[in-house]
Specification:
With about 400 residues, this protein is α/β, with parallel strands linked by helices. It has seven helices and 28 strands.
Length: about 400
């Protein structure tokens, strides 16, 4: 057993990551399958939406001038000369004193400039009486009012949401150019581990890191190609680290003990760029390259694994996916209810609760206590040059709920 020869700073680790990564190449994907993917190019609308003048209310298409002065005490009669339904317009040109029954979304007749809502009329046979006045353009959707032809609808770098895919359908865009999904292999080591979903048995414990990492990778634009427990043997670990992916996450065996094979293998068969970081938890974290893939060594302790992923591996995956490298969490500045202690020379990842807008530190140690993250509202990052914060100090909380 030996200690780390030196520890890199968090800043040095982030700088190394930023030097290694750039958005992956683009690929064409069906728009209907593109939710969650990142646009590799602007989307420009080929059409106007709407492409025709349409009614925005059920009622009667009229010339607004015919309704001037209309009220319940001054009913103005109009003659019904047709009906316009969605996809079945009225084939008439509206004259003064006429009206066309119209449904929401239906095309406006020629020369009609307003819609008189159905609740402001009384109908008698082929006549309708206006009980209120409408202004020119009232309840009418104009051509291109929603989206103008040749305008940029969605910008490069946007992660597509369900409503964005709806827009793509509305403008008739069947394919979009998106960043290729980041292929990620999760390698969990430890002969004491049981697969997720098992019951703990004897001295064996259940792997909780891979389910957590799967969710984090999906959040950050990655695609899990494989996630499994690998026997604690150098050949098996090396084979997994050489998988045909963009990023390998090795959970466990990341330190400097006799059974910590991953750092030695990465150093021998690739590049161990950083090993040991001045932070708490996650100090045994490491990173490097093996051939064309990035490899991140994440501690086996659950909180350390989460912390190291968020600081480093998540940053790289987001950059490769074309997303911002910044923390993907909602932030808010709040005051501490009590002192938050840290040590100068290392970055601290302090889990906190929030009670009545006051920040309560939950734990600053105990890297195996994953429950501390589920009990926490979020965390506070204490910089390396700080001894912590006194009661009532304002701190920035990063909330797990995003």
């Amino acid at each position: 057993m030996r200690g780390f020869a030196r520890r890199s700073t968090v800043e040095q680790a982030c700088d190394w990551i930023d030097e290694q990564v750039a958005p992956l190449s683009a690929e064409s994907l069906k728009s209907v399958d593109a939710v969650g993917r990142v646009l590799a190019a602007d989307v420009i609308s080929p059409v106007n939406v709407p492409a025709f003048r349409r009614a925005m209310m059920d009622g009667f298409a009229v010339q607004a001038e015919d309704t001037l002065g209309a009220s319940t005490y001054n009913r103005l009669p109009l003659t019904i000369v047709g009906q316009s339904m969605p996809a079945s317009p009225a084939n008439v040109r509206l004259q003064r004193g006429q009206a066309v029954r119209i449904m929401t979304g239906a095309p406006m007749p020629a020369d009609a400039d307003a819609v008189l809502p159905v609740e402001t009329v009384e109908i008698s046979g082929q006549q309708v009486e206006a009980l209120d006045a409408v202004a020119v353009g009232k309840h009418v959707g104009e051509v291109g009012e929603d989206i103008a032809a040749d305008s940029v609808v969605l910008n490069q770098g946007r992660r597509l949401r369900p409503q964005d895919v709806g827009i793509l359908a509305a403008i008739g865009v069947p394919q979009v150019s998106v960043q290729r999904a980041v292929r990620v292999r999760i390698v969990v080591t430890g002969d004491e581990l049981l697969p997720p979903g098992s019951l703990p048995d004897g001295f064996q414990i259940v792997d909780s890191n891979s389910p957590m990492l799967r969710g984090l990778v999906a959040r950050d634009g990655g695609l899990i190609t494989s996630s499994e427990i690998v026997v604690d043997q150098p050949d098996a670990i090396l084979s997994a680290m050489r998988d045909d992916v963009d990023v390998v996450l090795v959970s466990g065996g990341s330190s400097v003990g006799q059974e910590d094979h991953a750092p030695r293998l990465l150093d021998e068969y690739g590049e161990l760029a950083i090993h040991g970081i001045a932070m708490r938890p996650s100090s045994p974290s490491g990173m490097g390259r093996m051939d064309d893939r990035l490899v991140f060594l994440l501690p086996g302790n659950p909180v350390s694994c989460l912390c190291a992923y968020d600081f480093f591996a998540g940053r790289a995956i987001r950059a490769l996916a074309g997303l911002s490298t910044d923390w993907p969490y909602r932030r808010q500045r709040l005051r501490l209810a009590r002192k938050l202690v840290s040590v100068v020379g290392r970055v601290d990842y302090a889990r906190v609760g929030v009670v009545q807008d006051r920040v309560e530190p939950i734990a600053v140690s105990g890297a195996s206590l994953l429950s501390s993250t589920t009990r926490a509202a979020g965390f506070v990052v204490v910089p390396a040059d700080s001894e912590g914060y006194p009661p009532d100090a304002e701190v920035e909380v990063l909330f797990y709920d995003r």
